[in-house]
Each structure stands twice: as structure tokens, then as C-alpha cells.
Amino acid sequence: MSTYAVGDIHGCFRSLRALLDEVKFRPQHDTLWCPGDLINRGPDNVETLQLLMDLPNLEVTLGNHDLHFLAIAEGIATIGQSDTVSDLLDHHRLPDFTHWLRAQPLLVAHPDETIVMTHAGIPEIWNLEQAKRLAREVEQHLRGANWRSFLKNMYGNEPTMWRDDLETPQRLRLATNIFTRMRYYRHPGTFEFSHKGSTAPEGFVPWFDHRHPELDKTTVIFGHWASLGGVHRPELAGLDTGCVYGRTLTALRLEDKAYFSVPSQL
Description:
Layout: E1 3-6, H1 13-22, E2 31-34, H2 45-54, E3 58-60, H3 64-73, H4 86-89, H5 94-102, E4 108-109, E5 115-117, H6 128-143, H7 147-153, H8 168-181, E6 184-186, E7 190-192, E8 205-206, E9 219-222, E10 231-233, E11 236-238, E12 248-253, E13 258-263
Parallel strand pairs: 1-2, 2-3, 5-9, 9-11
Antiparallel strand pairs: 1-12, 4-5, 6-7, 6-8, 10-11, 12-13
């Protein structure tokens, strides 16, 4: 039995199918981990979600594109020029897709907590227990009766500095942004959510250049940052290698830290 973590799929179903074939993935025996951005930007969102939803052994964390789709589906956000979710919106299983996505977490930890997965990462200001607690808080709002209000509130780049005493709407927005949109960070707790490239804005560094001491020996799996082309460091695996941009789709086998990639099949 093996566990494979696969980088941002973005609805690239054919590439996902090719990668699973490459590693000889056995659905009844192996487990798939996906760090978010399952859909949007790619061509085959319906097929991608149907495959994932049918897997018996799956761990998923939500990404910013998954949350954005939920907002579009509820009429809270409008479809942008780069959004490709019409196949989901027009499908008779749309309620199933939105219900399933709302039930997915923002953070997944291996039972022994040696491996943790979230879409964008975990900043140095949080140890694992803090990160888990904040992820659960966001998840409760996303799954609760006022989940549409949560989606309306999540848009925006402010606040950018974490404080434990932030009021609930600001705390939820910043926590969601950290889990799903974080790239650049300035010690001791300021985030920059506008820059997407590999060149840091002045005064900032990639978030993973600072790690909480308690996470030094924990492998953090993340996606979200395609412009880096993947990140392979001790206790760090950035798996977004730009499949939706015509590059590759990448998997990491957790048991032996072996990497596998297939060319994009857009």
C-alpha cells in the first residue's frame, strides 16, 4: 500500500489519469493526497471531481480555486475570464459537487503528524496545533448554516498581519488567505497576497524560508505556487509544477519520498 500526493490538478483529468497510470495507482489499496486546486483553469472539472469522489482512499485540502468555485456556484462571485467551471455549473450533479467540496478540510495531518498537507503552507507564527485549530474554525464556518456569509467575507487581501485578537470576520479571512493563498511573508507575521511570481517583493521572502521550530521535522506538502516549478527540500514538498500551464503534473510517494511526473496532456 502506497500513498501518493499529487500537485494542483486544476481540472486536468487526462494528466491526472496518466500520472495515476504511471505510478500504477491501485484505488483499493493505495491512498491519494491532493493539496487543493482540484478544479478550474483546466478543461475537465466534472471528470476530475467524479474520479476523486469515487476513490475509497482520498485526502483532500481545499485551495483558493475550489473556494472560488463554491462562491461562483452560489452567485456570490462572478466567473472571470480565466475561470473554466461552466461544465460544473451546467451539470446535473452540481449540488453533489458543492456539498462534497464544502465537506473537505483545509489541513490534513498524517496520524503520527510527521506529514501535514495544506494548499499554500503553514506560516512560522503557528505551530501544528494552532494551525489545526484555525483550520477547524474555518471549516466549521464553511460547513455551517451561514456558509454563504463566510464565502462573501473571504474575498480581499486585508488584514495582512496576524494577531490572535482579530475579530472573527478578519480572523477568518486572514486564516483562509494563509491556508489557500500565502506565498510571501515578512517576519514576524505579515503576509503579502498580491505577488504570484518567483521574485519576492521588497522586504518579503517565501513563507517556507521561516518555519516554526516545532515543525522542523514535519514534512509540509503544499501546492499553489506554480511559478516555482516545484519545491524539493528536506521536510518540504511543493507539488504544483504547472500542469494547467502546459508543464507537468507531479506526485510524491510519501513512503520513500520518490517523485514522479508526467507531461501535461491539455
